[in-house]
Amino acid sequence: MHRQNIREINGFLKGYKHVSEMAGEAIFIHSTHGNIFDVNTIAEKLTGYKRNELLTMNVRQMHTRPGQKVASRALDMIDRTEIKVDFDSHIKRKDGKIIDVRIIGNKFKFKEDFFVIGLVKDTTPYEKNLKRKPESGVVRNVRARSFLNPLGKVYVEPIQVLVELAESRDFYTMEHSAKVANHVMHLANSIKLPKKEVETLKLAAMLHDIGKIGIRTEILMKAGGLTSAEYEEIKRHPLLSVEIIKSIKTVKGLIPTVRHHHENYDGTGYPDGLKDGKIPIGARILALCDVYDALISERAYRRAFSHSDTIKIMKDKKEKKFDPMLLKKFLLYATSQN
Ligand SMILES: [Fe+2]
Ligand SMILES: [Fe+2]
Question: For residue 287, how far is its CA from the centre of ligand 1 (angstroms)?
Answer without folding.
Answer: 8
